[in-house]
Amino acid sequence: MFNRENLFGKSQPAREQQRQPQPPRYDSPGAGHDDPRRQQYPDPRQQQYGQQPPMPQRGMPQPQRQPVDRKPVHNISKILRPAKLDDKNLQDQYVYGNITAVSPADFPPSQDGSDLYIMVNGKYVVTARPTPSFPPGHIGLTGPQRQWCQVSLTEEVRADSYDPFSSQGGQSYLAAMDVDIKFAGRKMTEIPYDQDVLTEYLDKLYENQIFAPGQELVMDHKGIVLGIKVRTVSLGNLGMEKPSADAPTASDPSARGILTRQTIINFFKDASSPIKLKGSTKRPAANSIIAPDFKFENMGIGGLDTEFAAIFRRAFASRIFPPGIIEKLGIQHVKGILLYGPPGTGKTLIARQIGKMLNSREPKIINGPEVLNKYVGQSEENIRKLFADAEKEYKEKGDESGLHIIIFDELDAVCKQRGTTGGGTGVGDSVVNQLLSKLDGVDQLNNILLIGMTNRMDMIDDALLRPGRLEVHMEISLPDEKGREQILKIHTHKMRENGLMAPGVSLSELAKLTKNFSGAEISGLVKSASSFAFNRHVKVGSVAGVSDDIENIKVESADFENALEEVKPAFGVSSEELGTAIRGGILRFSPHIENILEDGHMFVNQVRDSESEPLLSVLLHGPSGAGKTALAAKIALDSDFPFIKLISAKDMIGKNEAGKVEYINKIFADAYKSPQNIVVIDDIETIIDWVVIGPRFSNTVWQALKVLIKEIPPHVSSHPKCHFYPTFKLDTNRL
Which end of the chain is more exposed for a tag (fewer CB within 10 A), N or C? Predict the structure, then answer.
């Protein structure tokens, strides 16, 4: 029979006493450590063998162990058989301390009394402690260690002494470590674990131990057994003040390092465990929201510096701070951004570039009409699928979940005001309800960001625009002169870089000439100028032939001038219509005409320069054919305002009252999108169907004009407005 008493040497105390090694000398250097180590540790002769000396206090500088040019003092290789400790108390201490027991006869204690490093089967490094009561020829791997090393109690293993400093040099310490944590026993708790407290506890238990990706261990925290598995590590040297951002993250088991008080430990909730984690108040989230290599100049968007600053402040600033701080503030991250503005200003491009700016998954991009489906309930199911991945990860990782971005283009197509859509199916209302519940319902998520885009913000349901849903409303308006110059630089970057733009082309002058051009229209302008340059190098008499001097092609100033005649802004000056009104010029047959023009220019300057007069209306009246429309057109064109629009009765032929009101309202809405604008309403009596006999007129159109004429423009400081009303015969007291 197998006699465990004889195996453990309890019946042979004399031989055990002879075999016991002598304590090391305190005045001898400890395996390459510097002398300051002696001041931090007591005399090893006052301790029992195998007892770990106390660790230095947090914040005390750690002495760096320098690699030596000679072989390690203990260069040992043994074939050992796994065994368990008989002492139950010592067994629990080693299991929860991640310590492997070895016999001093196989691996003598180190000279400074610290634990040893042993490589198992040439692949796995464990922290070992020489234990006098442990039998020679055996190794006391704990259960988690045997599972990690893939060995059983019945098979032998090869154990070699390991020196990390001679094997890895300066990169022997852990700069950062990502670990998964879970409940490893039956006892659990609903109280969230503070990551900072867990970090301190882990440092206290396992400082100076070696860890590698894939390693598993268990620890007892306040009577609850927690399981930990190392996910990834980042290596560094002990001399650095803080881990470098460029330190590579490794998941290879051969990338191992020593845990120190400077190591950053990131905890992640295990997917199969109900454990809850509180965010750290000292460190940012493990999943950095902003990509480390992101630069604003690489986004390819110009003229939106103010908008981007506002978006970052409202939507992303809270995501770069430690989660514990956000939890103490009691706030949640912004879940939705609505980008609205005229067509072609870059809303979709901004949404795509925001996805690149963030260190998150590839954004889900969907157009509004793609959500709708002919089958009952399928449209709502399409909305739920957009949030499925975010819901699954949030259940697994909680606040440590990565950010999920959903880009919703043409949002007004499916999120109209509830109750306004026709038909008896009610699909539109159901889609809006489903989206509302996903954004801010009972089971609300904190790891999503919905970016919606629309040209018609007025059509979107009000419940979707409140805080907690699409709460950040950002108007992407027409770029100013500085913004237009930035956009021109972006679109001409390649031709300037390759020397294909003539030196005489001035982008600043082009920016001044492209008033009210959107980003898309500036892009079209550059394409048009390039087409004129191509045309100069087409063979005469041929349509598809290219001349031999194609290598000398250059885009010149004349090409951009021709392009300006070809590409017109959608929100620009109605120069053709106004030019038609003064095709014969202005005949100054009377000083009264000069006075009218001077007064008109004075009114224009008043609107342009005054901060207290954002709105001014002027009525020109007189007999038919006296030149009222020509004078109004002359004053408007001379004002050099970026937006000038003529509303005339001929544009409303065939429209009913509702059509006329909608047409007039659209022109006024377009005028608000320009920083300065003039609206000329010609022949008001015809527009409102004025009839002298009666008298009678269209009250609906008349009331709409009265409201729009008196309405103060939004963003008063940047949208001054001037109205001119040439009319034949109308009671001026009604204006």
Answer: N
User: Which residue reads 């030196």 in tokens?
Assistant: 503
Which phi and psi angles does 140 have, rounded to 5°? -95, 65
Crossing angle of helices 657-672 and 699-710, in 10° steps, is 10
Contact 610, 716 (CB under 8 A): no
The H helix count followed by the E strand count for the chain is 24, 24
- Token couple for 677: 């604008």
Helix axis angle for 481-491 and 519-535, nearest 10°, is 50
Q: Are 345 and 519 in contact (CB under 8 A)?
A: yes
Separation CA 134–CA 16 (nearest Å): 11
Tokens at 683, concatenated: 């022949």
Q: How far is CA 419 from CA 362, 378, 424, 427, 431, in A?
A: 35, 20, 11, 11, 12
Q: How far is CA 203 from the centre of its chain?
A: 32
Alpha helices per DSSP H over 184-322 = 195-206, 305-311
The alpha carbon dihedral of 117, 121, 122, 125 has a sign of negative
pTM of the model: 0.60
Q: How big is the CA angle at 498 (ends 492 and 503), to the nearest 5 degrees?
A: 70
How many C-beta atoms lie closer than 10 Å to residue 38's C-beta?
A: 15
Give dist(CA 455, CA 476) in Å, integer: 10
User: By mean pLDDT, which of 235-244, 375-384, 575-584, 694-703 is the weakest?
Assistant: 235-244
Assess contact for 354 and 319: CB atoms under 8 A. no
- CA dist., res. 39 & res. 29, Å (int): 13
What the block records as the tokens of 361 is 């998954």
Q: Cα–Cα distance between 193 and 188 in angstroms, integer?
A: 11
Q: What is the pLDDT of residue 653?
A: 86
| Phi/psi at 119 (5° precision) | -95, 125
How far, in Å, CA of 111 to CA of 131, rounded? 15
Tell me the C-alpha distance between 566 and 563, whole Å: 5
pLDDT number for residue 527:
92
Cβ-contact 448, 406 below 8 angstroms: yes
CB neighbours of residue 417 within 10 Å: 17
Digit-coded pLDDT (tens) for 480-523 = 888 888 888 888 888 888 888 888 888 999 988 888 788 888 98
Alpha carbon distance 723, 725 (integer Å): 7
Structure confidence by residue, pLDDT tens digits, 393-446:
887 767 667 788 888 888 888 888 877 665 556 677 788 888 888 887 767 787
How far is the C-alpha of 340 from the C-alpha of 464, rounded, in Å? 14
- Reduced to 3 states (helix: H, G, I; strand: E, B; else coil), residue 34 is coil
- For the chain, the C-alpha Rg in angstroms (whole number) is 39
The token duo for 651 is: 């544009």
| Helix H or strand E encompassing 367 | strand 364-367
The upper half-sphere exposure of residue 327, i.e. CA atoms within 13 Å in the direction of its Cβ, equals 17
Q: Would you call 253 exposed, middle or buried from its count of C-beta atoms within 10 A (0-12, 13-18, 19+)?
A: middle
Other Cβ atoms within 10 Å of 629 Cβ, number:
22
What's the CA gap between 322 and 284, in Å, rounded? 4
Residue 225 token pair: 């057994």
611-633 pLDDT, tens digit per residue, is 777 788 888 888 888 888 888 88
DSSP 314: I
- Could you tell me which of 563, 557, 485 has the C-alpha nearest to residue 531? 563
The alpha carbon dihedral of 375, 379, 380, 386 has a sign of: positive
Question: Where is 177: in which H helix or E strand?
Answer: strand 173-183
Give how far the C-alpha of residue 338 lies from the chain's centroid of Cα atoms, to the nearest Å: 15
